[in-house]
Specification:
With 170 residues, this protein is an all-alpha fold. The chain folds into two domains: 34-78; 89-168, no CATH class. Helix content is 69%, strand content 0%. Helix 2 packs across helix 4 (70-78) and helix 5 packs antiparallel against helix 8 (135-148). The protein is elongated and about 70 Å long.
Length: 170
């Protein structure tokens, strides 16, 4: 039987470890932004029906240059209510503006087909529309188009039960 010998660690040795670890973390390549898993959660949630967390992690790194570990992906998938709510934190202010502007309760318009036109490329038409809309409404529409309506309707409908308590307050 092999015995494992461990080094006796002195308090003086430990004192230098922390600063070295922190210095290394600052010099190492930063591979993932905080909150990236939240921003990608709806797509991770949808992809989880057909892919493992490991396969998603590999795809993101190889195809998109994004390092997101399978462990992080699994943690997100294991608590969908928390992650849908964190994602909704990103779009709720825009949805509230849109709701106040007369689009109706967000519980209804968020779970319909795309309600916005595709982005307009003609600069004259774009300028005319911007002059007709309040700036905050135009900004809210842009956020919802890019972050919420980019998600397949099927996945948005699956999010509804996780968000109902928030939408019920509206």
């Amino acid at each position: 039987m092999e015995t494992m010998i461990t080094k006796q660690i002195n308090v003086a040795d430990v004192a230098g470890v922390g600063p070295k670890l922190l210095a290394h973390s600052k010099s190492a390549d930063f591979s993932a932004r905080r909150g990236l898993v939240v921003e990608l959660f709806p797509f991770i949630f949808g992809a989880a029906e057909r892919m493992s967390a490991r396969a998603m992690s590999q795809f993101l790194e190889k195809e998109q240059g994004i390092r997101l570990s399978a462990v992080t992906i699994n943690k997100a998938l294991n608590d969908p209510a928390k992650n849908w709510n964190l994602f909704f934190d990103l779009i709720e202010p825009a949805a509230c503006i849109f709701e106040k502007d007369g689009e109706g309760p967000m519980g209804k318009f968020l779970f319909r087909e795309q309600i916005f036109l595709k982005p307009i490329k003609n600069k004259f038409v774009k300028a005319a529309l911007k002059s007709l809309l309040k700036a905050e409404v135009a900004q809210a529409a842009s956020i919802l188009r890019e972050k919420w309506y980019a998600i397949d309707l099927e996945i948005r409908l699956k999010a509804r039960p996780f968000l109902e308590h928030r939408l019920g307050k509206k």
